[in-house]
Write a structure and sequence with these properties.
With 65 residues, this protein is an all-alpha fold. The protein folds into two domains: 33 residues; 31 residues. The chain is built from two helices and no strands.
């Protein structure tokens, strides 16, 4: 009986690590599906940056005049 408990204790770590790796890989695959959402957000942010740069340039030309 003691040998069985010792064997279970020795196997607990590798089995637990395997389960954690499987769960993390599963979560990563689900996260990859949201790549298009991220690309849309990046495009919107870039457009906003361009708009802010244009506003800043317009403000500079007004202040120089």
């Amino acid at each position: 009986m003691e040998t069985l408990l010792l064997g279970l204790a020795v196997l607990a770590c590798p089995v637990g690590m395997g389960v954690m790796m499987w769960m993390m890989a599963r979560g990563h695959r689900q996260g990859c599906d949201q790549g298009s959402d991220k690309e849309q957000q990046i495009a919107l942010l870039r457009a906003e940056i361009d708009q802010l740069k244009a506003e800043r340039a317009a403000d500079r030309t007004r202040s120089e005049s």
